[in-house]
Design brief:
Blueprint: H1 3-10, E1 13-24, E2 28-31, E3 38-46, E4 48-53, E5 56-62, E6 65-68, E7 75-78, E8 88-93, E9 96-101, E10 107-117, H2 123-126, E11 133-136, H3 149-170, H4 176-196, H5 215-223, H6 231-237, H7 242-253, H8 257-275, H9 280-286, H10 292-303, H11 307-313
Parallel strand pairs: 1-9
Antiparallel strand pairs: 1-10, 2-7, 3-6, 3-10, 4-5, 4-7, 6-11, 8-9
């Protein structure tokens, strides 16, 4: 199983397409901080825009761009004119709310929604993605003459998925709401795949997908988290010296292999606490902790609450 599939099997993600914004300049989209377990997204179907948030300088957007906010940060998208946006009107259309204005400038057409993370520890996903992720699906990256085949295939599929979402949102039929939400969930996975296959994949766990020599260690962490893995053992799986393994891991994601192993173990344990009635001590042992006290200490430090409280809450607690 590839790394992205491993992540999505541990942390299920569903999607919800909620808004379509049909604006003429001047206009703005001003979104507050998202709720727990929500990742807002926007797809610019046509037109141009400017994105502003705390994660970096203003970024120009063009048709085909997909914008995700893995940390749920507040953000501001506008037409870039600097003029005051006029009032908007809204109307329902099938499962969507369509927002429009009376602006007479350049038109922009957005699909907006949320990705919803399952009630499992999600730091393994959130902490390894940038605060904002902008993916340009319409055109090959600037300065590239020939696009890699895998990148080209992912781009084509992503464009087709967006077109299908657009068609269903614009001309809904029976079952459209569920269909579009399933497409929205697929958009999350395909967007991350597309990002990892770019010239500069996101700096984080997904960047390891571009490091085939490190894959045996990652596979071992996910498949046998209960083993008492050491750096010497993990580096041996990758046929590297200990020093080379440590350096390549740190270069790829900016974290140590030991830290990632702990994150994988706590994510698996958090899901097991919710999906089974196995005793807490048994779950701790299954992810590599022979001592109940040690497992509780690491789980609370990583998740923010004790294993027992996490289980009692059904996972509906904000993680630390």
């Amino acid at each position: 199983m590839d790394l992205l599939s491993r992540l999505l099997s541990l942390i299920p993600v569903t999607g919800r397409l909620e808004l379509r914004c049909l604006f003429g300049a001047p206009w703005k989209i001003d979104q507050a901080v998202s709720g727990v377990r929500e990742i807002p997204y926007h797809v610019l179907l046509s037109g141009h825009a400017v994105l502003e948030d705390v994660n970096g300088p203003p970024e120009p957007l063009s048709a085909g761009d997909i914008i995700l906010f893995p940390l749920g940060n507040a953000h501001f998208i506008h037409d870039g004119s600097g003029e005051t946006a006029g009032p908007e009107t809204s109307r329902p259309k099938a499962s969507l709310i369509v927002y429009e204005n009376e602006g007479t400038g350049e038109k922009a057409d957005f699909l907006c929604g949320r990705f919803l993370l399952g009630a499992v520890p999600d730091r393994l996903l959130r902490d390894h993605l940038p605060g904002r992720l902008v993916v340009h699906s319409a055109l090959p990256e600037r300065g590239t003459d020939v696009e890699a085949p895998a990148r080209s295939v992912a781009r084509t599929r992503l464009k087709r998925l967006i077109e299908l979402m657009h068609e269903e949102a614009n001309d809904p039929g029976p079952g459209s709401e569920m269909f579009v939400n399933h497409l929205s969930a697929a958009l999350f996975a395909l967007t991350l795949r597309f990002a990892t296959e770019g010239a500069q994949p996101p700096h984080g766990l997904l960047a390891l997908s571009r490091r085939p020599r490190l894959q045996p260690a990652i596979a071992a962490m996910f498949e046998t988290p209960g083993e008492p893995w050491t750096l010497d053992q993990l580096s041996a799986l990758c046929h590297m010296s200990r020093a080379t393994f440590i350096r390549q891991f740190q270069e790829a994601i900016g974290r140590s292999a030991a830290d990632v192993l702990t994150e994988v173990r706590m994510t698996i344990a958090g899901r097991m606490l919710l999906d089974s009635e196995k005793p807490v001590a048994g779950i701790g042992e299954s992810v590599g902790y022979q001592s109940m006290a040690a497992f509780q200490r690491v789980f609370k430090r990583h998740i923010g609450v004790s294993p027992a409280r996490w289980r009692a809450s059904g996972g509906n607690l904000q993680q630390g």
